[in-house]
Amino acid sequence: MLCPADCHVTYASTTDRMKSKIAGVFGLRLTYSALTFLTSILLARVLGQSGFGIYTYSIVWAYLLSVPATMGFDNFVVKQIAVYQTQASWRLMNGLLKWANRTVILSSTSVALLAILVASVLRDGTQSETFLGFCIAMLLMPALSLRNVRRGAMRGLNNVAQGLLPELLFDPLILIIFTVGAYVVVGDALTPLWVIIFYGIGSGITLLIVSRFLKQTLPNEVVEAKPAYEGRFWLSAAIPFMLLESVPIINSQVDVLMLGAFKGATAVGLYVPVNRGAQLITFILMAVGSSLSPVIASKYADGKMADLQQTITSSVRVVAGVAFLFAATLIVFSSFYLSLFGPEFLAGQDALYIFCTGNFIATSMGLSYGALNMTGHEREAATIGWGATISNIILNAVLIPLWGVNGAALATSLGSATGALISLIMVKKTLNLDMTIIGPLNKASARSDS
């Protein structure tokens, strides 16, 4: 059956819209990365190493605990609202939004109060400013959690960029404006506690903005429908999303939290610029990985393994080449980079060398995770991910007490590289695909299935 002329037009317009949305989200994330980098320099300069550490340590705790606080609903609503919209199940969509809001308010408040209680019991000589910063950050959790759920609802309604806009653009801008304004007025008297409060003000404002966006985006049928509820199903379906989401978040934050627990906020302040600088090396992995994933799935489904191997080898070489360029640049200009945050941050130079080397190695093998996920081996990928997370925690617990900031950098690098290496071996074992920059040594064998 031939497709009518307008079918091709519709397909082209849909593809164009998809490309436009992807470009918009990518642009937002790039802008957010730049603003976050500028914010880090600003706060390090204004607050100093210790104050910057107190701020970061408190906010990272809020970020980590927002995972159990949202109970997976921030990601579950993405899927379920899209399903309800396709099925025109307006009553259930209305009910889900109301039920998720109430549930998340209750859970986030409970998590925040429990965290404050536990922290007060375990305080044992903790610097009072660090403890107060933690408590203030915990009180922000209901606003952060609600914002995440409403952002997820916007994604489910296929308004991804608009849903991310308040968090990725307005939030850092509000923090910068309030911090600069306060510093102009009070100068060096500005404390990390006030900056945490400014962060909370930004979270509240952006919650109102994303709520307004959601209200404007919701179909009229949802607003007018009488809500219907499937609470037991929603809760049981949301929990796995929470478990899946927790792996990368724990993996990305455990070093900061354990360093703060063992060595204090000052060590965190020194470590964060090192960590964020080294994370630039992984940017190419995310960019290539997001584009490569559907290609892997398609070629694997079609059985074009030789073609897939060729695509993977060229992609791995691009990732490794760009990652090496970033790592080498950071190592060569490490003094200049760290001095942007202040002269006291030059003490993190050795940790930056360790992190750059480790992230280059891990990034060069990092496409292996995507290869497993896109070929029906999600369980193996998840197992490796959890294994890497556990090893990361153990390594940090052993190495931070011994070597402080350098130990955290070494532990995190070893954990990431080990997980990537195991996934690379698993891809070779299960798919017979070579994920190294060398590629398959037996070229004739690689061509035989084409």
What keyword list fits this structure?
450 residues, mainly alpha, 2 domains, disordered C terminus
Describe the protein.
The structure is a single chain. With 450 residues, this protein is mainly α. It folds into 2 domains: 19-229, no CATH class; 273-447, no CATH class. The chain is built from 17 helices and no strands. It is globular, with a radius of gyration of 23 Å.
List the helices and strands and how they pair.
Layout: H1 5-70, H2 73-87, H3 90-122, H4 128-139, H5 141-156, H6 160-186, H7 192-217, H8 220-224, H9 231-263, H10 265-279, H11 283-302, H12 305-332, H13 334-339, H14 349-364, H15 367-373, H16 378-431, H17 443-447
Subcellular location: Cell membrane
Transmembrane segments: 26-48, 54-78, 99-119, 131-147, 168-186, 192-210, 231-250, 278-297, 318-340, 352-372, 384-403, 409-427
Pfam family, one: Polysacc_synt
